[in-house]
Automatic annotation (TrEMBL):
It comes from Magnetospirillum sulfuroxidans. This is AI-2E family transporter. The chain crosses the membrane at residues 7-23, 57-81, 144-169, 210-227, 233-255, 304-334. InterPro entries: AI-2E-like. It is a multi-pass membrane protein. It is found in: Cell membrane. Pfam families: AI-2E_transport. Belongs to the autoinducer-2 exporter (AI-2E) (TC 2.A.86) family. Keywords: Cell membrane, Membrane, Transmembrane, Transmembrane helix, Transport.
Length: 353
């Protein structure tokens, strides 16, 4: 078999895999989530095995404790979150009054400086953009209800993911050994080296970034609650949990928190404290959390991660978000390997005797 024929076979296999993922994207969520959790927890299972537990006992212990912690955390947080949301809804008229008082001098100044025609144009423009914004929000809500976060998918996450996680974690080493036995003999060592690099990249990013997101969520949630921001825990946890997209969590949390702070208080003290919380969070993330937990050897550039997440989410919905970083890591490792080969080849150096 020629090199070109082998390339065509691998390319056809990759195309078939992508078509398979696209066709089954609606049912893949609990399985992808279970595989991700198994990958995340596998090192702990290996440690318990070395301590003397069987793989099944180690898997049962880890899975049980992990989901027990998740349920306990949810039970503790949900009443607090519900209380904040209810209080927020009840205070909406007060927010409207505060914003009206803040904006009233600006509106009077605009009326004084602008002509009646300019004001009419401004009202028309604002109305059009507001209508577009409402339409977009309704589209997003519809997508959430009918897409990856539909009720049936949420239920599958709750009931199917723990089962998938258990079996994947229990049989992880067996599956890796089986796949290793299928590798083509001629290129086995090269593939093993690339797989080890991919595993290192994924482990460094996923486990490290998950720790960073949890730490930031706790920091922002507690900090915003302490400074007295309504809905502070919700905004803080949300900002931390979506921080796996570089800068998105901080920017979203900061804009939302500042807007709510301006609506909640007539003074500038609360907005200043909210800004201080996010500034401290950025210093904590940039100087301690990311260097210590993620490191600089992962090899995934923030722009590449953002592109992968947007592309994955656009093509496959929430499942695409889960698969985006692993696929980006694979492409990054293979691209760097191909670049090294190119830089050593005669194609780069020209004709070599």
């Amino acid at each position: 078999m020629t090199q070109g024929q082998r390339f065509k076979i691998w390319l056809a296999g990759l195309a078939a895999a992508l078509v398979f993922l696209y066709l089954l994207r609606g049912v893949l969520l609990p399985f992808v989530a279970g595989m991700a959790l198994a990958f995340f927890l596998d090192p702990l299972a290996d440690r318990l095995e070395r301590a003397g537990l069987s793989r099944t006992a180690a898997t049962a212990t880890i899975t049980g404790v992990f989901f027990l912690l998740v349920v306990t955390l949810a039970v503790l947080l949900l009443p607090i979150l519900q209380e904040q949301v209810v209080a927020f809804v009840q205070r909406i008229p007060t927010y409207v009054d505060t914003l009206n008082e803040r904006l009233h001098p600006l509106i009077l100044e605009l009326k004084r400086k602008l002509s009646k025609g300019d004001i009419d144009k401004l009202r028309t423009s604002v109305g059009d953009h507001a209508g577009e914004a409402v339409t977009w929000l309704l589209g997003v809500a519809k997508g959430l209800l009918t897409g990856g976060l539909a009720v049936i998918n949420v239920l599958s996450l709750l009931f199917i993911t723990p089962i998938v996680t258990f079996y994947m974690l229990r049989d992880w080493d067996i599956m890796v050994a089986k796949v290793d036995s299928w590798l083509p003999r001629e290129h086995r060592e090269t593939i093993r080296q690339q797989a080890a690099e991919i595993n290192r990249t994924l482990a460094g990013f996923l486990r490290g970034q998950a720790s960073v997101c949890l730490a930031l969520g706790a920091f922002y949630g507690i900090g915003l609650s302490l400074v007295g921001l309504d809905l502070g825990l919700v905004i803080g946890l949300g900002a931390g949990l979506i921080s796996f997209v570089p800068y998105l969590g901080t920017i979203t949390g900061f804009v939302t928190g500042m807007g709510l702070a301006l609506a909640q208080s007539q003074s500038w003290e609360l907005p200043a404290m909210v800004a201080a919380v996010f500034a401290a969070g950025q210093l904590l993330e940039g100087n301690f959390l990311t260097p210590k937990l993620v490191g600089d050897k992962v090899g995934l550039h923030p722009v590449w991660i953002m592109f992968a997440l947007l592309a994955g989410g656009g093509l496959f919905g929430f499942v695409g978000l889960l698969l985006a970083v692993p696929i980006a890591a694979v492409i990054g490792v293979l691209s760097r390997s191909a670049l090294k080969r190119y830089l050593r080849s005669s194609l780069y150096h020209g004709h070599m005797p």
